[in-house]
């Protein structure tokens, strides 16, 4: 696509020359092409800059979706006939939850809860419930859907909260898990990927609210 665009611009320059159109226009387009080539080079390198930090691709969208498919198949098998309620933890899990739900082959429902424990690139360890759960989950099979599990404190708090509402069972599903960061014992049945203790963005995860729209997952590049 970029090559075709360059070719089109080249033909346009030829037209400018042929009809003796102001050469200053050519200078403007020349500057534009330099910027375009640089942006293309940056994309090829697989790096993006968000605010004051640079990130590079570590997990491609194709790999992410393949791993989610495996998890969805396991959930569909385990939860057959149970009509599970997916409780997606906002904001980070919204893309994962959507893709996961579309890959499930069983009847299921979804709702959302918002907890906060992040500032900048590190977890504060302080958990604050922003939005509660409005659904009646008594006797229901519940699957907590997280984007990433690190210390496990958020999930532990959520399980304690849900437990007071008498669900039939509570299960944990996460896109990403950092095993070395876990500080509390958790039975995480559904894990798409285990990753090292790096700060990441993309596919719903953010750096100070930026980067959620990136289709791949990126790891911060140490300066």
From TrEMBL:
Keyword Glycosyltransferase in record: yes
A biological-process GO annotation: GMP salvage
GO molecular function terms noted in the UniProt entry: guanine phosphoribosyltransferase activity; hypoxanthine phosphoribosyltransferase activity; magnesium ion binding; nucleotide binding
Primary enzyme class: transferase
EC number: 2.4.2.8
Pfam families associated with the record: Pribosyltran
Predominant subcellular localization, coarse grouping: cytoplasm
Family: Belongs to the purine/pyrimidine phosphoribosyltransferase family.
Protein name as catalogued: Hypoxanthine phosphoribosyltransferase
